[in-house]
Amino acid sequence: MSTEHVDGHVDVLIIGAGLSGIGAAAQLRAHLPGKSVAVLESREASGGTWDLFRYPGIRSDSDMFTFGYKWRPWPSDRSLAEGHMILDYLRTVAKEYAVDELIRYQHKVTAAAWDSASKTWSVTAETPEGETTLTAGFLWNCSGYYDYDQGHQPEFPGLADYEGTFVHPQHWPEDLDYAGKKVVVIGSGATAVTLVPAMALGDDGTTVEHITMLQRTPTYILSRPARDPLARALAGTLGRLPGIVPFKGARTKAGFDAVRWANIMTLVGSYQLSRRAPAAIKKLVRDNNLKQLTARPGGKGFTPEEAAAIVDEHFTPPYAPWDQRLCVVPDGDFFRAMREGRAGVVTDRIKTFTAKGIELESGETLEADIVVSATGLSIKLFGGIDFSVDGVPTPLNETMSYKALMLSGIPNFAYTIGYTNASWTLKADLVSDWVVRLLAHMDEKGYAEVVVNRDPTVGERPFMDLASGYIQRALDRMPKQGDRAPWRLKQNYLTDLRVLAGDLVDEAVSFR
């Protein structure tokens, strides 16, 4: 399979060499070997999120049996895996499928222009040598939805007066020494609940004096085993890390499928239950939190009364489960840090920074040698690319999403954005399957162009149905979602699997 034609034109141009882009390119390699493919990556290395973030303890918050590709089994019983393990897995897959040969690094795509006459995309990218233009028959954006250059950073009063170290997890200093220091982590999302135990319970002995998670609003936090119980039971058929090797034999594949489907059904079932019977999930999470905080026999911790007071104040959000993303912690490490007195939680609002820490609206002051602003992501959908069709600019917020993988009025274009309520890769795999089928269908019928045409009778809905702040801040810049299929997917893997495996052609799709 050639990486490009003689004139530099490729059949499929993929943007992004992270989990989605590597998976997309691997599936094109496997199923459409006659197509030329190139992958543009803005950074100097592959791996996307898993190469970018370097803060202590970075790990998945989805189980690896669904976060790994369905066609390349995750070879470990480690369910919530560390970042370096995930990066190793991705780069191993890229090497196995020769995707690493297709990647052009330090190519930051800024614009993509479709020309109907030539049925071609002209894609402009910034490189260290200057601006360059590539052409392609089909454009597949796999760059995700957040800004890799800058995270979300609120304006904190008095920050200029603070004499300590202030960092954002997206730009973690390699030489940051936090041993024996007082640390405050602002935020209560996945990054915060990862940082707190990693800095408080460091396996290498590098631990803080004390760390405090400062939150405005509580988050649902649930403990689950770091190693999947079913995978451990089937360890003889699964293989292990380190040293990722391909699975061999039917027993291995059967074992992986069993664990994967057990996790899928747990994900789908718990989410559906949380939407239909939120009180039941609230009770499950509350009971889990109480169990985690209460002192073990002969160990440290809180009395049942103390644990109940802590849960009521700091772990009982005012919203229903999955209105925002629920945080999962492996083996209750976050709660263990609290039981051992190494970590604490404060629910309050910042009044101002001071020279030595943070003054809260309640009047309390938190002393801090280091403040970590785990305040979330900044949305930059599709890398902020400027799209145009036949010379006419096409703002994303004027388009409507079709099956959560194409946009109305933009020909020969697909995108991969994973689930927000389940494992990202469950959706990414579905998109890869669908796009491969689409391209094969176009080849079979001799089509050069495909476009979806917006139905004016379809009502508009938000592109992402999640109340998280980082999503809400960017909704006005995003495409719309429809109020019914095929302009709306249910964000349910079992339903989406059936829909996306169905007919490629419907009244919204036009081929030329």
UniProtKB/TrEMBL annotation:
It holds the Pfam family FMO-like. One of its GO terms (molecular function) is monooxygenase activity. Keywords: FAD, Flavoprotein, Monooxygenase, Oxidoreductase. Its cofactor is FAD. Its EC number is 1.14.13.-. The keyword Oxidoreductase applies. Gene3D superfamilies: FAD/NAD(P)-binding domain (3.50.50.60). It is an enzyme of class 1 (oxidoreductase). Signal peptide: none annotated. InterPro entries: FAD-binding_MO (IPR051820), FAD/NAD-bd_sf (IPR036188), Flavin_mOase-like (IPR020946). Belongs to the FAD-binding monooxygenase family. This is Flavin-containing monooxygenase. It comes from Nocardioides eburneus.
